[in-house]
Design a protein that fits this description.
This protein has three helices and six strands, in the order H-H-E-E-H-E-E-E-E. By secondary structure, it is α+β, with helices and mostly antiparallel strands. It has a single domain, classed as Thiol Ester Dehydrase, Chain A (Roll), CATH 3.10.129.10. It has a six-stranded antiparallel beta sheet with strand order 1-2-4-5-6-3. The longest helix has 19 residues.
Length: about 140
């Protein structure tokens, strides 16, 4: 079973610029009930646990794709600030493999830095349940500002 880690020290490591304008965790992270449960500095990877709530469902009673992408962004965002200066999402290409039902309870978003070139960061992301069943995979490209 995975447990939430104390993120206080992680926030201090984030390369974010002025702390006067910084909100950590960001509201989107909090609203989606996101929790960083693992961070591996040497592998430049993170795992974020996110609740699957009724508010995130589409008419088919499965998690709506936009919320899945928001969950992906809630993992890539903190990781990107741990591996690079201030940056932003440029592109996100997501392949949806299986629907995420409400009874999944939580999803686990695993993000890893795949490449860092000049001002471009590329992340590989997998969304799965606590059994390791994969719901979606994504490639996210961020640009350093």
């Amino acid at each position: 079973m995975k447990h939430t880690i104390d993120v206080t020290e992680l926030y201090k490591k984030m390369q974010v610029g002025s702390e006067d304008t910084l909100v950590l965790p960001p509201p989107s992270f909090t609203i989606m009930q996101s929790e960083i449960i693992d961070y591996n500095e040497s592998e430049a990877s993170i795992c974020v646990k996110i609740a699957v709530l009724e508010d995130w469902l589409n008419p088919y009673q499965t998690m709506q794709g936009g919320f899945i992408n928001a969950a992906i962004d809630n993992a890539v965002g903190p990781l990107s600030l741990l591996v690079a200066p201030v940056n932003m999402t440029r592109t996100m290409k997501t392949k949806f493999l299986k629907s995420i039902p409400l009874d999944a309870g939580y999803i686990y978003v695993h993000a890893a830095l795949a490449e860092k070139r000049k001002k471009r960061l590329t992340f590989d992301v997998t969304v799965e349940d606590n059994q390791g069943d994969v719901f979606s995979q994504s490639k996210v490209v961020n640009f350093i500002l």
